[in-house]
Amino acid sequence: MAFLSDAQIVINALDEYYQESISAQKPAITQQPLEKIISDLQLASYSHEGGLTGERLAEFMRDYLPTTTRLHHPGYMSHQVAVPHYAGSLAALIDTFTNNVMAIYEMGPGAASIEYHVINVLLEKIGWQPAPLNLHEVPYSQAYAGGVLTHGGSLTNLTALVAARTKLVPDVWDSGIPQDLAILAPAGSHYSIARAAGILGIGRRGIYELEVDETGAIIPERLPKAYARLRADGRRAIALVANACSTAVGIYDPLNEIGDFCSEHGIWFHVDGAHGASALFSKKHRTLLKGIEKADSLTWDAHKLMRTPTVCAALLLKDHRDLDAAFKQEASYLFHDKEQPGFDFIHRTVECTKAGLGLKFFFVLAALGEKGIADYIDRQYDLAGKAYDYLEHLDGFTCPVRPQSNILCFRVQGDDELQIRIRDRLNEQGQFYLSTTSFMGTRYLRVSLMNPSTGMQDIQDLAERILRLRKDLSRNQ
Asked: Which portions of the chain are predicted below pLDDT 50?
């Protein structure tokens, strides 16, 4: 077996790739045409003939890695994807090699136990009662929190709304979907909320938009008006969705006040904290999530702000019984009486085959510790604040809101088309990679400061490059 020698080839190539990336020797992004990449990598030849080992593997790595987007590059400031800690990558190797599909305990006792543990770590950060370890001694009727790890926040948001729907309409799996269901959510919610509404049979017209302030945050005082409109239309709310934080500009909704409203009216309160829930690790920034314990469910992605490789998303519920009741299907080869020394996660998720996602998060957490995670979050959030202060006072730039997270939007003087053209030109040059977003009807350049190697000098260099591009584009126009 060539495992050791081939693994060394891959590790050596990745180490060189990492050094090139953090030192900015190579561009952050290089986009070649699809057909060229397929040809240059000789994909057809390898697919037909095999032989990707030894020197041919080394050659492939030399050709493949330059086609990737370098997240470790300090100029990578685009999407909300973790710049992974190497420990998580080692865990991914272990998980894929052992291939324990641990949704049922007997197919991965170690992986299932680790998932159970890291879920409890997150539950304690929220302030909920963690799940007991001595399951056989605790009555199922006892109230405590629970959760499951899934392959992405979109699936997690969907599962949360499935649980909310099942609680509101217990016989939905037998009788079908009533036509009077609805969701309360701000327009700035992640697109997965609208997608989930479609999958659940509610549709976009079943989403009642909540009023927001100039930062995009929900206005609690306007919630009664939106709910009254929903009720006047003869609808029942399966859930109210709030953001912690918003995808576009990284602003947190006032969870404490929203939680009180939902409790008063008996509405399931779901918080999409895919990106910003990680601030719960920070003593400095956890106040942004004040009132999170009042939620019924929370989406929290480890593969965003906890340095964990994709994908590892947690769905956490205040009451485990609501999650356990979300799905009501039978499969005699999986669900039956048996000796059970552990816990089966399969009844909590859409997925049947599920990777040991907790292993990646645990390895990162065990390498950095909770303080290491907190220090990283503090650094990235504080960097966004410093970048805001710099750009807001720099001639030619404006920012729509002061950031509450590591997401910062800004705009160079000019129209919406100019923002897109500047972003495209930056990506062509490759030293900086950022995204854009539309906020309150206006197009902004957008950075997600995910990289612990990115500093204020990189922000200043980016601003200087943008000003030069604006001048060049205006002159050419």
From this structure: 333
> What contacts 401, CB < 8 A, 6 or more positions away?
214, 215, 216, 249, 251, 409
pLDDT computed for residue 68 by the predictor: 98
> What is the C-alpha to C-alpha distance for residues 379 and 374, in angstroms, rounded to an integer?
9
Q: Which residues contact 2 (CB under 8 A, 6 or more apart)?
A: 53, 54
How distant, in Å, are the alpha carbons of 169, 235, 313, 329 from that of 174? 10, 21, 29, 10
- 3 state DSSP class of 297: strand
Amino acid at 219: I
Residue 450 zone, left/alpha/beta (φ > 0; ψ -120 to 50; rest): alpha
DSSP β-bridge partners for residue 397: 412
Global pTM reads 0.96
Residues 422 and 152: their CA atoms lie apart, in Å, by 31
Secondary structure E strands in 211-291? 236-243, 269-272
Rounded-to-5 percentages of helix, strand, coil across the chain: 50, 15, 40
How distant, in Å, are the alpha carbons of 21, 60, 282, 355, 431 from that of 66?
A: 10, 11, 36, 28, 14
Give, to the nearest 10 degrees, the angle between helix 191-199 and helix 153-168. Answer: 50
Buried b / exposed e over 408-432, threshold 16 CB at 10 Å, is bbbbbeeeeebbebbbebbbeebbb
Q: What is the pLDDT of residues 129-185, one digit of tens each?
A: 999 999 888 887 889 999 999 999 999 999 999 999 999 999 999 999 999 999 999
Q: Amino acid identity, residue 169?
A: V
Please work out, in degrees rounded to the nearest 5, the angle formed at the alpha carbon of residue 334 by the alpha carbons of 329 and 339.
125
Per-residue pLDDT, 296: 98
Distance of alpha carbon 287 from the chain centroid: 20
CA dihedral 299, 303, 305, 307 (to 10 degrees): 150
Condensed to tens digits (0 to 9), the pLDDT of residues 100-114 reads 999 999 999 999 999
Q: Which of 87, 116, 89, 95 is nearest to 356 (CA)?
A: 95
Residues whose CB falls within 8 Å of the CB of residue 151, separated by 6 or more in sequence, listed in order = 311, 313, 351, 354, 355, 357
| Secondary element (H or E) of residue 398 | strand 397-398
**3-class DSSP assignment, residue 237:** strand
Q: Which tokens sit at 301?
A: 């992605």
The full set of domains in the chain, from first to last, is 3-67 (no CATH), 93-364 (3.40.640.10), 370-476 (3.90.1150.10)
Q: What is the dihedral of CA 274, 278, 284, 290, to 10 degrees?
A: 50
